[in-house]
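Hi support team,

I submitted a single chain yesterday and got back a structure, but I'm not sure I'm reading the token output correctly. Could someone confirm the output below corresponds to the sequence I sent? I've pasted both exactly as they appear in my results page.

Thanks,
R.
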Amino acid sequence: MPGSLPLSNLRVVEFCHVVMGPTCGLVLADLGAEVIKIEPLDGDHTRKLTASGAGFFPTYNRNKKSFAVDLKSDAGRGIVLDLIKSADVVTENFRPGAMDKLGFGYEALQKVKSDLIYCSLKGFLPGPYEHRAGLDETAQMMGGLAYMTGGRERPLRAGASVNDVMGGMFGAIAILAAIRERGETGRGQYVKSALFENCAFLMGQHMMEGFMTGKPVAPMPDRIRAWAVYDTFRTADGERVFVGVVTDTQWKIFCGAFGLKELLADPSLTTNPRRVEARPRIIPVVTKIFGAMTKQQVLDKCEELGLPYAPIAKPEDLFDDPHLKASGGLAELTLLNGIKTRVPALPIEMDGKRFGTRLDLPQVGAHTREVLEGLGYTGAEIGRLIDQGVVRAFESSGLR
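Hi R., thanks for writing in. Yes, this is the structure output for that exact sequence:
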């Protein structure tokens, strides 16, 4: 729906790879921005990742255009500079100093386009650590998240690239704030987002827990639950479900539904703090109840009672999740090999609408010709640039 999306008049030039930078661009692209991905002639190396990295490129690069160019050539850098002059935003997550060497650092670009918004997505914001190479894993280790997830003896990274994804989101938030400010001042600015600071932000609740209680914060495997019934339980058919009972009202409903008259009448269990203290007595009772029921019986009963519950899903289960399928939570996507699939959409709704796929994953250089034509290059000039190896264009019959 051209012109109907919130950021449809925004042009973004993206110098990004892997997860953090592409996530930032994805948020902007899904919201309608024209995001032009600058790729080397042989393509973003993320395209070639396997194993746990195989999902990076297809997840974070829909709704983008691919412009393949040799940034080591003067001609290639000149073209990209012309493209940047037509843009509102530049995003980059290269190693520190790399953009400056190419001539595309903020100070250089600000001189030729004063209203440009420039977003760097790094491992660290300015400070003693800013020179370090940053990864989601290093941020989780030094930021406390791995400790909270795995425990004292075996720090364990979270099961998703949480800092990369959230760091990209915070980058997009900063860009949108800068766009709003530019509307008032007419000036662009340099904004930054970083993995380590993102992880520290995630740890804020645990930092404050320790400060408020005066006690060392226990990692998740060792911590005392905030509620007595707040755990996973094995069912009669060998499955596991999570069930929570988190209010006094829910406790009464739970005890009444499962015939726990003695627990309900026990004056020592009338408040949540006292039930937490009695957890060693309560949990065996609950474990026995759910252990005699099938997974579906537990889920159906909790649904009936209005209790918080969840099956223990695997990533592949989400393709068939009825809620995601019915609510527009999965966006259609065609992979580079032509196979059609679905990928999670932005987890937001605006005016009753979800944001989906306008542009499928781009082949390397799929939009090179289009971008050059938009900059005023003739067909003959584009042909010469392709033949000289300055740019690469994907044609329907193959690459040139």
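A quick pointer for reading it: The mean pLDDT is 96. Let us know if anything else looks off.

Best,
Support desk
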